[in-house]
Design brief:
The structure is a homodimer of 149-residue chains. The first copy, chain A, has 149 residues and is mostly helical. Chain A contains 6 helices and 2 strands, in the order H-H-H-H-E-E-H-H. The structure holds a DNA duplex (24 and 24 nucleotides).
Chain lengths: 149, 149
DNA sequence: CCTATATCAGATCGACTGACATCT
DNA sequence: CAGATGTCAGTCTATCTGATATAG
């Protein structure tokens, strides 16, 4: 329970919870993106690698669902990642409409590298908060997301 | 509606705090935007009206700073709002480079209408949370923003 | 026949950049 | 003169739509 000197009132806009949430979301995303850019990696690619590592091989449609990206946009991201040698696309023998997307050894390397970057970026974004506060924030964010989709 | 037994672990991506924050920010922004769209209003315009109501007359540059919008982009937003009769731009007699932006009576009406819309949108976004939790979330978000900008 | 998958082309929107006229 | 202000034009990115070929 940090004895916070409450700033009598935050600036107008930040008194709007949706505005504050939107703004923090932007800074979080921008911070992560910048951190990955600095190392010549893509944070969107990292998200894909994480899913592949966790769920194993996936179809493009399932992948798109997991990361809430439009399937048609995912195509181009996967193109880049394939060109970088971080994943493989192979036709699914059980359903010839689908491709089986799987992570490669190079992709796994990039994943580990990305995890370090992500950890540092998270630390920067949440720097003003204590570990307890970070945990509380995270729990509340997850609860808020459960219904608001 | 599957009765969610709390998944002992949240899906991969949501275990990344920056990802979860980014996602919640997106849904919050999208929810607000949709709510305003439905009523034929703009949530970005509402943010401007709020600032004008709180701070009184402002230059475009000061406005841009308050809402963290690029001044050159603000020009077009103000054009629309002026066309809608929600604000006035008048040359500043004390500094002829500047315009004094001020809210009109119609703008004040739109502000009040927007406040109702915003309240409902906020309720939707934070629906899964109790009032106490909402307050905690808000305080933590503000604290996180204080340094991470 | 209707649906699902992956793909492509294009529209749209918000954020950002660079240049410029006017004024301090 | 350098710097600030409002403006315009253009780029870039992410997101979203619509159409299509192929397969279930």
């Amino acid at each position: 329970m940090p004895a916070e000197e409450l700033p009598s009132r935050p600036p107008v806009l930040l008194r709007l919870p949706v505005f504050a949430l939107s703004r923090l979301g932007q800074t979080a995303r921008a911070g992560a993106k910048a951190a990955f850019d600095r190392e010549g990696l893509s944070w969107r690619a990292h998200v894909v690698l994480l899913c592949l590592h966790e769920h194993g091989d996936l179809s493009q449609r399932d992948l798109a669902g997991l990361i809430s990206m439009d399937p048609s946009d995912l195509v181009r991201l996967l193109d880049e990642m394939q060109r970088a040698g971080h994943l493989r696309r192979r036709p699914d023998p059980r359903d010839r409409r689908r491709y089986v997307v799987s992570i490669t050894a190079d992709g796994t390397d990039a994943l580990h590298q990305g995890e370090r970057i992500m950890d540092r970026a998270t630390d920067e974004v949440l720097a003003p908060l204590t570990p307890d506060e970070r945990e509380t924030l995270n729990a509340l964010v997850l609860r808020a997301l459960d219904i608001s989709r």
